[in-house]
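Example 4.3 (complexes with small molecules)
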Amino acid sequence: MPEILYRKWRPRSFGDLAGQEHVAQTLTNALSTGRVAHAYLFAGPRGTGKTSTGRLLGKALNCTDRRDGEPCNVCPSCVDFLAGRAMDLIELDAASNRGIDEIRSLREKVAFAPSGDYKVYLIDEVHMLTDAAFNALLKTLEEPPPHVVFILATTEAHKLPATIASRCQRFDFRRIPVAAAVATLEKICEGEGFTCESAALELIARSATGSLRDATNLLDQMATSYGKQLTLDQVRAGLGLIGDERSGSLARIALSDDLGAGLALIASVRDDGLDLRQFQKELIEELRALLMVKSGLDPDEGVTQERRRDLEAAVASVPVPRLLAALRAFGEADLKQDPRALYA
Ligand SMILES: [Zn+2]
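Answer. The structure with zinc ion bound is encoded below.
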């Protein structure tokens, strides 16, 4: 996967950082008050902005015209960072450089002064380091030179030795909410001259389950396959999803006791040659969302107002036990063998 769009649209300032406002806020505060830590631990799922934030921090630390903690993006240092040729940013992928030698050579470099204000070491997937490498790293973290900032990024923070973790200021990166991912995708579409139905962008964001990198790469793929004008149907087809709204309809029919309508709908899905197992998964997902809304919860992080209202209307007069029974029935039913099982 070339990740062309993802690279092109990486955030250039903390304000652009999607879905991680708490991180952006704390870091810009630290930058504007001169309280930047010597070591940071960025923990969280893949594709949520850990590496991008590390690079942003490196850029902001070395920017000669920083405003309110934000890099200017025009000074010579910022330009070097944007072009990916900054001498003061040293990135190490611990997944492929796990050993003591890499950390030793890193420790040797730490001794040299930066060409700008700070040398920033960004170690990705840091939990992959060997014990010997961790020990070497620990020595550096124990006596950090004043001009050095370490950023340790990991998807599995629990695998880090406590001695390392305790020397870092920790940030937990959360999964990107659907609404924030959609907003970023909209920005990319605008910049790239794509037109894409908003329901299609929402579907892409939902499929990416909180990873902005996955969402952006999916958009990239769709545009490569279908061109610059994307419809909901194309995105559905591209994602291998059932090509219609029938799972949502059946969920509602199941709650209404209309046996005939339910059976007819299942038959039509089967006759269209669609994957009934996938259809059933989507059904259960829809019922789960209905139950969440009925219980006063958000079905998804960042659910749109429109969808929420739609779900609320669907369950307004449905008692909770009925929803639970439907969920149970759908969970156990084998639609292929016996669609009537749903109504047992
Ligand atoms: Zn600058």
